[in-house]
Design a protein that fits this description.
The complex is a heterodimer of chains A (about 425) and B (about 180). By secondary structure, chain A is mainly alpha-helical. Chain A is built from 15 helices and four strands. Chain B folds into two domains: about 15-45; about 50-185, Rieske [2Fe-2S] iron-sulphur domain (Rieske Iron-sulfur Protein), CATH 2.102.10.10. Helices cover about 20% and strands about 25% of the residues of chain B. Classes of the chains: A mainly alpha (about 425), B alpha+beta (about 180). The interface of A and B includes residues 182, 283, 303, 304 and 358 of A.
């Protein structure tokens, strides 16, 4: 796909450089990379994600100059960043909101890949590297959320590290090893800070592999057919640098709206309370981007099974290239699968909604019945609990990957694919 | 030995090469192992953390029906002076039907006089589900109730309903006088 390099150094200095370290050549080839000519705005999220990573690293390094990873000082040091450090309010807000924006972008990016079949051959490894990045992002987000040492930081860390305690036989020792003590405490905070600093650089390295893989196999596109001639492509610059640039500008406006007007909208008020190991907040909820997984965790009554399902929900993503048996990539040409995909998307939102609520509360009320409480007749609502709803969502989530995609690939009658990207554009199909 | 003439250098001795091969591999394996051990082990609880692992609690100040909450190893320990009603309720439970079968009796350690006093219940106040702190005198069994995902414990701290798999843990403890308990 990338083909032989067409770069010709013009100046003596450039020639000298090219013989010794062809880094200019690399940059020029990168900018001229032939991309399918029918890419839409869903393809701008790769660029947006790169920007997010750079922004998190930059603001994070600055926050680390003012932050103190100690249980007695962490909470105050973050408040000091917000109140006293010049522009600390801006940088802290950019980092905290940035984490949410990062996840928003990565989810769009992933659903995009799912819809256009970008995980299919020859892009399996590209997809898997992406899943690894997502996993590392989740770890980073979780570790970072512990750092401000508020009530949600503390109890979130307690619940999540508790997962490891559920592993049979070795669980308890493993958990103590992770925590560096009997419970979440100062050793935990210090190692979490160290790892939170490390992981973004691991992500950056994975991103390098990810981009390398994209450049090796070439980008997929909305109609999912291979690029056949040079006609089907456009050089990355100036066509997609412009398109990505415009998308980034819009994205940054949304980002700025949150940073300046709604800096706390995506967080939880309880995290403005200092961590207290003697008092559990009434509802422990993770950050919004973990809610669907939290719902899956709580959908089953058994602790270990809940954890297995929750991790399983991520494992299925890794093996997706071999679960979907269809030859056709893009769901534009898979009318039945497309409908099930929309239900899947909807179910992810449903699971997110369940994750943010108490399992025993009612999601929908169907009516009321009268019951006796302490000798008084009171009216009690009846309906579907969030637990039931999250079970439906969980079954659909796994059913989609493990049953629908393998089976639909065999039986679905797909629409006729266009002959080429260029022809599809002329026929108004791309 | 001395009268066997093998001209070293001219003649390749394969066993010598094997020796270098095996000894290098062995040294690498031992080296990697002995490096990995400290790298992994440094994450475990440090000596000072472990040394801070025991506390003494004076139970004489607790009135009947009251509960003391003390921090031990970063977790709360409940010391509850149970009422006769609570003890009777815990005794009346059918063991067979329990998720984590345990008699009320088995959840106590002998007092200073060597006898079991079932009024002072010492227990780690951490829900065995995901580690929240249950609230006292609450839930369907008037023991403890964990608000996080709805686990109900009875007056002995045994799990009766909800997602938690185990009874609340009884820590290692001993009476070091009539009224002072050492936990840990
Ligand atoms: C993958 C990229 C990253 C993600 C997803 C991420 C995520 C987070 C999150 C969710 C928080 C909690 C924010 C809050 O509630 O206030 C946080 C805090 C923090 N992060 Fe990051 N982070 C990333 C990269 C970095 C980097 C590269 C550094 C430093 C080298 C860093 C340093 C910090 C510090 C010092 C805090 C605590 C201060 C605070 O809470 O505002 N982060 N991070
Ligand atoms: S932590 Fe107590 S019920 Fe889940």
């Amino acid at each position: 796909m990338s083909g032989p390099s067409t770069y010709e150094p013009k100046y003596a200095a450039a020639k000298w450089m090219d013989k010794r370290l062809p880094i200019i050549r690399m940059g020029v080839d990168f900018m001229g990379f032939p991309s399918p000519r029918n890419l839409n705005y869903w393809y701008a999220f790769g660029g947006i994600l790169s920007l997010c990573l750079m922004s998190q690293i930059l603001t994070g390094i600055i926050l680390a100059m003012h932050y103190t990873p100690h249980v007695d000082m962490a909470f105050d040091s973050v408040q000091r960043i917000r109140r006293d450090v010049p522009f600390g309010w801006l940088l802290q807000s950019m980092h905290a909101v940035g984490a949410s924006m990062f996840f928003l972008a990565v989810y769009i990016h992933m659903f995009r890949g799912l819809f256009y079949g970008s995980y299919k051959a020859p892009r399996e490894l590209l997809w898997i590297i992406g899943c690894a990045i997502y996993l590392a992002m989740m770890a980073t987000g979780f570790l970072g959320y512990t750092l401000p040492w508020g009530q949600m930081s503390f109890w979130g860390a307690t619940v999540i590290t508790g997962f490891f305690g559920a592993i049979p036989f070795v669980g308890e020792s493993l958990q103590q090893w992770l925590l560096g003590g009997y419970s979440v405490g100062n050793p935990t905070l210090q190692r979490f800070f160290s790892l939170h600093y490390l992981l973004p650089f691991v992500i950056a390295a994975l991103v390098a592999l990810h981009v390398w893989a994209v450049h090796h196999v070439g980008q997929n596109n909305p109609i999912g057919i291979d690029v056949k001639t040079k006609e089907d492509t456009l050089p990355f610059h100036p066509f997609y640098t412009m398109k990505d640039g415009f998308a980034i500008a819009v994205f940054l406006m949304i980002f700025a709206l949150f940073v300046f007007y709604l800096p706390d909208a995506l967080g939880h008020a309880d995290n403005y309370q200092r961590a207290d190991p003697m008092k559990t907040p009434p509802h422990i909820v993770p950050e919004w981007y973990f809610l669907p997984f939290y719902a899956i965790l709580r959908a089953v009554p058994d602790k270990l099974l809940g954890i297995i399902l929750m991790f399983g929900a991520i494992v299925v993503l890794f093996v997706l290239p071999w679960l979907d048996t269809a030859k056709v990539r893009s769901m534009r040409f898979r009318p039945t699968t497309r409908r099930f995909f929309y239900i899947f998307l909807f179910m992810c939102f449903i699971l997110g909604w369940c994750g943010g609520n108490s399992p025993d509360d009612l999601a929908f009320t169907f009516g009321h019945k009268n019951v006796m409480v302490d000798g008084h007749e009171v009216s009690e609502a009846i309906g579907m609990t969030f637990k039931t709803l999250s079970r439906i969502g969980t079954i659909y989530y796994f059913g989609f990957f493990l049953f629908l995609l393998p089976v639909l690939g065999w039986i679905e009658k797909t629409k006729k694919l266009p002959d080429s990207i260029t022809k599809a554009i002329h026929d108004g199909e791309a | 030995m001395s009268d066997t003439h093998i001209s070293d250098g001219e003649h390749e001795d394969p066993s010598r090469r094997d020796f270098i091969y095996i000894s290098t591999a062995a040294a690498a394996a031992v080296g990697a192992g002995s490096l990995a051990w400290p790298l992994v082990s440094q994450m475990s609880a440090a000596s000072d953390t472990r040394a801070a692992g025991s506390i003494e609690i004076d139970v004489s100040k607790i009135e009947e029906g009251q509960q003391l909450k003390v921090l031990w190893r970063g977790k709360p320990v409940f010391v509850r002076y149970r009422t006769q009603k609570e003890i009777d309720a815990a005794d009346a439970v059918e063991i067979d039907g329990l998720r984590d079968p345990e008699t009320d009796e088995a959840r106590f350690r002998p007092a200073f006089d060597g006898k079991i006093h079932k009024n002072i219940l010492v227990m780690v106040g951490v829900c065995t589900h995901f580690g929240c702190i249950p609230v006292g005198e609450a839930g369907d069994f008037d023991g403890w109730y964990c608000p996080c995902h709805g686990s109900h414990y009875d007056t002995s701290g045994r799990i009766r309903k909800g997602p938690a798999p185990k009874n609340m843990v009884i820590p290692e403890y001993t009476y070091i006088s009539d009224t002072v308990i050492k936990v840990g």
